[in-house]
Amino acid sequence: MLVFNAMRTFRIAVFLLLATAGVSGLSPASGQSFRVSFQNQRSATPIDGRLLLMLSTDSSEEPRMQIDDTPRSQMIFGVTVDGMAPGVPATVDATAWGYPIRSLRDVPPGEYTVQALLNRYETFHRADGTTVKLHMDQGEGQHWNLTPGNLYSKPKKIRIGGNAGPIDIEMTEEIPAIP
User: Starting at the edge strand that comes first in sequence, how are the strands of the sheet with 34-37 ordered?
Assistant: First the structure.
């Protein structure tokens, strides 16, 4: 009986090892991925925040101005970044949560305008000992797409589909202070 249990435990361990090796070998490449960065001209220090990637089929205005809760909303995907350093790209891929489409892997092939935006967070040390990172209003009324100091990229035409590698996006712009 002891030998049987040992063999069963061994088989389960081998199964789990192979299963987890297979899972870790999976790539989010089943959807398009993006490498987003900024240079030290925009910030010489690392930034905490929410990195947002927007895809639009409507060329009437910047994708960052087309995200809302109507049926006409364009797509947005986001990842939290802690200490995003200048010159070091952060990846937005199929693991990023999206709206109104859940994942980049579900984006239909086609022509899109892409834009990235980094919504800056500030660190707060609460009296109860908890530390939280949150977006602070800068006089714009909590509109992340208009917040002074947020970095963003110029809109760029891309094609999604096929076996293309990651698309590089550089955030070269900064939303100016409100006069």
Answer: 90-92, 34-37, 167-170
Residue 77 has a CB neighbour count (10 Å cut-off) of 25
- Domain ranges within the chain, ordered by starting residue: 28-174
Say whether pTM exceeds 0.85. Answer: no
Task: Give the span between the Cα atoms of 82 and 133, in whole angstroms.
Answer: 9
> Which tokens is 142 given?
């909590």
As a whole number, the mean pLDDT across the chain is 85
Amino acid occupying residue 155: P
State the DSSP code for 52.
E
What is the CATH topology of the domain spanning 28-174?
Immunoglobulin-like (2.60.40)
CA distance linking residue 156 with residue 55, whole number of Å = 10
Q: What is the pLDDT of residues 97-145, one digit of tens each?
A: 999 999 999 999 999 999 999 999 999 999 999 999 999 998 899 999 9
What confidence tens digit (pLDDT) does each residue in 127-137 have?
A: 999 999 999 99
